[in-house]
Amino acid sequence: MAEGRDIQWVDIGEAHAGQRIDNFLHTRLKGAPRALIYRIVRKGEVRVNKKRVKADYRLVPGDQVRIPPLRLAPEEAVREVSDNLRNLLAGSVLIEGPQWLVINKPSGLPVHGGSGVKIGLIEALRQVREDLDFLELVHRLDRDTSGCLLLAKTRPALLALNTALKQHKMEKRYLALVAGRWPARRDFVSARLDRYDAGNGERRVRVDPAGKVARTRFAVQETLAGVTLVEAEPVTGRTHQIRVHAAHAGYPLLGDDKYGTAAARRLGAELKLPRLFLHAASLTFPEPNSGRPVRVRAPLGDELEGVLERARGRGMSS
How far is CA 13 from each of CA 10, 41, 56, 57, 286, rounded to the nearest angstrom? Predict the structure, then answer.
């Protein structure tokens, strides 16, 4: 296989069987944006067994893929990962197995690049972990959410973990600080959710009877003066589900600039909250080969622990 500026010829083995050619190229061509990948596939610059294919073509063992040399314009290239981000991600791995790893995702880092974001977590990790030929997200977290994020290191593991996710065999629990006194009796919120365009290309979610079924379990962890620390477990996996369900129940998350209220913003300012208070605190999933449950916990960051300490100092918890 030729490297650098030459044409690459890649022989496909079992590890990439069933993977879409666009996803294969995105992993292989570090730094190439998806728009460029779609363009070179559409123009026939990428060939499989000397034939043109579409972006949704799925690879089979024995395929030979021709990858053209790429010269990225500065505005197209994914940004090189900084030393600070490299060190942060290297130190954020919570647990790692032969086929998967769980990272404590930093708040403020999107999981994917795009829409003006030159680098996301997955692109950065692919640069940091050059020892891996395959690395894909099993699920996602919002940009401002921190905590447990599961990634697959092999194609079979990705398929197995995606199946577990669809069959509700994966348990995700979050910690959130909400405005107001969440009633102990309110343990579930069920409200259909619909995605819509809020303008400027921004996608948001609202409660809509015509939307998709969504259900979240809430459990009070600590009641403080004016705020409540709750554990949230999404039974379904809709975009912004916890944030929208909490706001719909009348207890918006602190630090939520999309679905929060003026009162919640004031509380966040009083507590010197620097970000959305939503943290993926624990994750349980079946190990792809053995099926045994793997349980992982991600500790709250210092900035969120500090907010809780200040909230406790405002009055006695009850």
Answer: 9, 21, 18, 16, 25
DSSP states along 57-89: PBP-TT-EEEE------TTTSPPPPPHHHHHHH
The CA distance from 148 to 98, in Å, is: 18
Our CA dihedral for 208, 237, 35, 157, rounded to 10 degrees, sits at: -160
C-alpha span between 285 and 294 (Å, rounded): 5
State pLDDT tens for residues 152-202.
999 899 999 999 999 999 999 999 999 999 998 889 999 999 999 877 777
The 3-state DSSP class for residue 88 equals: helix
Considering the entire predicted model, what is its pTM?
0.78
- As a whole number of Å, the end-to-end CA separation of the chain is 66
150 vs 97, 105, 142, 163, 298, CA distance in Å?
Answer: 11, 10, 14, 14, 12
Alpha helices in 190-290 (DSSP H): 241-249, 262-270
Note if 256 is an active site residue. no
Residues 6+ apart with CB under 8 A from 123: 30, 31, 78, 81, 112, 113
Nearest to 219, CA basis, from 251, 184, 271: 184
Residue 282's DSSP bridge partners are: 173, 297
Neighbours of 316 (CB within 10 A): 8
Q: Rounded CA gap, 93 and 89, in Å?
A: 7
Euclidean distance between CA atoms 187 and 170, whole angstroms: 20
Among 22, 83, 142, 208, which one carries the catalytic annotation?
142
